[in-house]
Specification:
Strands 6, 10, 11, 12, 15, 16 and 18 form a 7-stranded antiparallel β-sheet that branches. The chain has 567 residues and is of the alpha+beta class. Helix 4 crosses helix 5. It is built from 7 helices and 27 strands.
Length: 567
């Protein structure tokens, strides 16, 4: 394979004051139908990474590609696997995976537009941007740099625009008008996605409507421009279909709109519901049966060896002789009598012990004399047992176990055949349901079966659009949180379980939140940029009326990672 190592370094300046970003790019080549990097390209990647440190403020984009051979879906999957391989290497080198954006294009973006150049199109492009951040606005601009999608569309026909993060926008033909109210044939559609509270923060969005807290399913900004840059409007007689992906659909979501994303207005527009009541998938039967096992006859017991008994210790008469002091003259007779009685009892115990000893000694001698015969009998019994066990085990294997295995295999094959028949019928049933649902979806303006598991709306306006519902909480269960933090910071409250973000207003002595639910845990975040250094602190809210935040210096990746909080 011809390996091409491309390293392009270019400098450009952001529109904000003094914001500078250095961009470096490398292209890595892959063998045909391979998703792993060879040693040469791994070395080139590591040499490229050696020009950066993990403490730099970096944004890393990994883009996977494939050549034109193979189906579109296969090439897309292959490009995803190639991008994943490179991302794993970056993470292994210590670069934070939260700061890595992975994209896969399959065969759709050949190098230099040349689809015939197969070698160069089997690649992964790694783009690393090193940032010099001077303000909070620049910080948020970097965080939201991958939220935008721009695409030129032909308005003489219907269009479906699908982003890398799963958002789908269906655009009818001739739906955009210029300043004179005339339809345009071509337009540039700009879509800004904000699906998580991290995106809300980056885009300067909140989840409030008329002072009430919202529970968000995702936000989207849609803009349309002519080829000359003129802003276009949506024909009042048309609607666009918007689908926001979700893992779990919540009931009662409606469409909210806003000009700035700071305060939202409920349009009372409900989602377009497309249900999927699939039949229950067949389950392969849990085949259980008694498996025969071989049990050998009891093994002969080796004869034990009796231990020689130990002779009892003789009585020590000196223990019972006592020297008297002069003051014990009146108690001597009693002491002497007591010691004599103890001595007699000791001799009685000794005689009993000696009798037991002689009895055990006789048994030991008799057992020792019989030991050779016992051992010989044991060896004969052991040989007979081994011969019998071998014969019985062979009989068990040939006459019992192997016939059972063969019979069981036949039964399992019958069960599997029956299961495959049921599974095939189930798949046909699901396909019929999907086709029916897809037909119904197209009738309601939905063009993709993926929308079944999304929040889908028909919208009659452009700009910021929000899928929300009001967070229901009794007034008595709410509290106003006071946060002690330096006044030159931005302070927000994050409720990640309900995907909500609320700003805190600056007061004379810190910050104050809107009324928030006591029983819904949150995380308070204070951040700023001081002399090119990002400052951050965060603390959990669990119902207490006050919190204290003291931002400390962090890197861009540490800031990104801190935003993935769990309240």
């Amino acid at each position: 394979m011809r390996s091409i190592y491309v390293l392009t370094v270019c400098l450009f300046y952001l529109c904000t004051a003094n914001a500078k970003t250095t961009t470096s790019e490398i292209s890595l080549r892959f063998d045909t139908d391979i998703d792993q990097l060879d040693a040469a390209n791994q070395k080139k990647l590591k040499e490229f990474l050696s020009t950066f440190t993990v403490d730099d403020d970096l944004t890393i984009v990994v883009r996977g590609h494939a050549d034109k051979r193979g189906s579109t879906s296969y090439n897309l999957d292959l490009s995803e696997r190639r991008a994943s391989t490179v991302t794993s290497i970056l993470t292994g080198e210590g670069f934070c995976d939260i700061g890595i954006v992975t994209e896969a294009f399959g065969e759709q973006k050949p190098m230099n537009g040349d689809r015939q150049n197969l070698t160069d199109n089997r690649r992964v492009d790694v783009v690393i941007q090193k940032h010099d951040i001077e303000s909070e606005a620049e910080l948020l601009e970097i965080l939201g740099s991958n939220n935008d999608l721009k695409k030129e569309i032909d308005l003489t026909q219907e269009n479906v625009v699908k982003s890398n993060r799963g958002t789908i926008v269906g655009i009818p033909a001739n739906c955009f008008l210029d300043a004179n109210g005339q339809p345009v044939e071509n337009a540039i559609i700009n879509i800004t996605e904000a699906l998580s509270y991290q995106d809300f923060l980056a885009e300067g969005l909140t989840t409030m409507s008329e002072g009430k807290m919202l529970e968000s399913g995702g936000m989207l900004k849609i803009e349309a421009f002519s080829n000359t840059g003129e802003a276009l409007t949506l024909d009042p007689n048309n609607t666009i279909t918007i689908s926001l992906p979700t893992d779990f659909k919540k009931q009662g979501m409606t469409l909210f709109v806003s000009e700035t994303g700071a305060d939202w207005t409920d349009t009372k527009t409900s989602t377009v519901e497309v249900s999927t009541n699939y039949p229950e998938r067949p389950i392969f039967p849990n085949f259980r049966s008694f498996v025969p096992s071989f049990t050998a006859a009891p093994k002969p017991t080796r004869p034990g060896i009796r231990m020689r008994p130990k002779m009892p210790k003789e009585v020590d008469d000196s223990k019972y002789e006592v020297d008297f002091e002069w003051y014990e003259i009146f108690g001597r007779k009693k002491i002497i009598a007591q010691n004599q009685a103890n001595k007699e009892r000791a001799y009685q115990r000794y005689e009993r012990s000696m009798a037991r000893y002689h009895s055990k000694l006789e048994k030991f001698i008799a057992d020792s004399l019989a030991q050779p015969e016992k051992h010989k009998a044991y060896q004969e019994a052991l040989m007979a047992w081994r011969t019998e066990t071998t014969t019985d085990s062979l009989y068990f294997m040939e006459q019992i176990y192997l016939p059972y295995v063969k019979k069981r295999e036949i039964e399992i094959n019958l069960l599997y055949t029956d299961y495959e028949t049921k599974l095939s019928a189930w798949r046909d049933s699901c396909a019929a349901i999907r086709n029916a649902k897809l037909a119904m979806a197209m009738e309601t303006g939905i063009w993709d079966i993926d929308l079944i598991n999304s929040y889908t709306f028909n919208s009659s306006s452009l700009g910021w659009i929000n899928c929300d519902r009001f967070y229901a909480e009794p007034a008595l269960a709410k509290i106003q949180l006071h946060i002690d933090a330096p006044i030159d910071n931005q302070v927000v409250l994050v409720f990640d379980k309900i995907n909500s973000l609320l700003p805190c207003s600056q007061q004379e002595r810190g910050y104050t939140s809107p009324l928030i639910p006591k029983k819904q845990n949150a995380v308070a975040i204070a951040y700023s940029v001081k002399n090119g250094q990002i400052m951050l602190d965060q603390a959990k809210f669990t119902g207490q009326p006050r919190l204290k935040l003291k931002p400390v210096p962090v890197s861009l990746n540490e800031f990104r990672e801190a935003l993935h909080v769990n309240s």
